[in-house]
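A further point concerns the way the authors explain their paired sequence and structure data. For illustration, here is how one protein appears when written out as sequence plus C-alpha cells:
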Amino acid sequence: MGAEDDRSGPAWDDPVLMLLAARLRTAHQRIAPLPRDTRQRLHRQLLAITDLAKRDHELAARRLAAFLADTDLPGGTDHAGAAATGADGAATGQRRDADAGRHRA
C-alpha cells in the first residue's frame, strides 16, 4: 500500500485551512437536525461557501463567520472569535465588520 493509497486525510497542514474545514463540518452538522425547508436553504448557502473556499479561503472564512452569526445556529457564536487570520493578519471578524461598514455607506 503506497502513499497515494492513504486516504486518511489531507496531505497539507495549514492551520487556517484546517480551521475553516472544521468550521464548515461543524456548520453542516448543526443544520442537519433542522426542519427540511430550513435545512435545504442553509445547506445551499453552506455549499456556496464551501465552493468559494476552493478559490478564496479568506473570503470563505469571513462569509462562514457571517453565516454562523446570522443564522443563530446552536453554538454558532463560539467560533466567532477564532484565531483564523488572513494574509494581512487581521482576524476574520474584524474584516467582516470593516466589509459591512463599506457596504452600508
Notes: Confidence is low (pLDDT under 50) at residues 76-105. Residues 36-55 form the longest helix (20 residues). The two ends are 58 Å apart (CA to CA).
